[in-house]
């Protein structure tokens, strides 16, 4: 459960009696690089809306109405002032601090790196969160989750754009403080999973990095993957790591009515449709014979760059994203705007 989805329930019923009745004794906030400690309400809506399936407007309205914190310490204070039922722990989201430091546009561009001062600011935010009692930081390399909103819609989360130097310095803080890195690897590049495991190993003069790696293991389609995961963990832990898997105990199933689902973006043709926000524009695209042919042919190759507003199917047909403006705002999800251009 994430901070945006949880605090709304807590404000009206912070005891969470139904969760407790079903045996939930601890709630962990801030997974998947997302938290609402530092970002403003609009950016929080863009970050959370599609990833967590929370209507963007609800996230924005809730934070604008109920926010009483401005940093990690006051965030903890706000939570402690609620009559909570379950125990509570929290990660600081990497996408949270990256967006608050660099701005959502710069934080979601592959050719932009944080300046030295921005890097130091992110490290200070992490240090302050650990001082306030956060258990660590959550990061995300999975390219599956997309942004909501008008300005940077359909780009991947800011954490996915972080490069090696940025992550090494943040890991150094966590390693020194003995705190946890929760990460979601990019499963389309399996070597990144191995690298995450190797980063956990202790070395000369350095402590092991306590790592919890999220893995939605498809034990139904690839049953032996669980055994590979256990073997990898056993090997790196024998080498001095502190490495754990966090995976689903049952097959992952998704039910959807229609195409309004982020998973559809995994298809080359689907990316073009889900990038559009207006139903009438989507319907127009659905009537396009070439689009329908590509979709029916099972175009499965991902072809939308992380910061792009144009999707190309595996048939090399390109469907440019159309933008309609109303009251000066882009109502379709084009990445072409004054602040966020592809």
Explain briefly what this protein structure is.
It contains 14 helices and ten strands.
Could you please describe the fold and organization of this structure?
The protein has 342 residues and is of the alpha/beta class. It folds into 2 domains: 3-184, TIM Barrel; 262-330, no CATH class. The chain is built from 14 helices and 10 strands. The chain has a 6-stranded parallel sheet. Strands 7-8 form a two-stranded antiparallel ribbon. Helix 8 (116-132) packs parallel to helix 9 (164-177). It is globular, with a radius of gyration of 21 Å. The two termini are 31 Å apart.
Strand content: 5-15%
Shape: globular
Helix/strand class: alpha/beta
Gyration radius, to the nearest Å?
21 Å
Distance between the termini: 31 Å
Total of DSSP H or I helical runs spanning 4+ residues: 14
CATH fold node name of the largest domain: TIM Barrel
Order the strands across the largest sheet as they lie in space: 1-2-3-4-5-6
Name of the level-1 CATH class of the largest domain:
Alpha Beta
User: Helix and strand succession?
Assistant: HHEHHHEHHHEHEHEHEHHHEEEE
CATH homologous superfamily of the largest domain? Metal-dependent hydrolases
pLDDT < 50 runs, ≥5 residues: 1-8, 299-305, 308-342
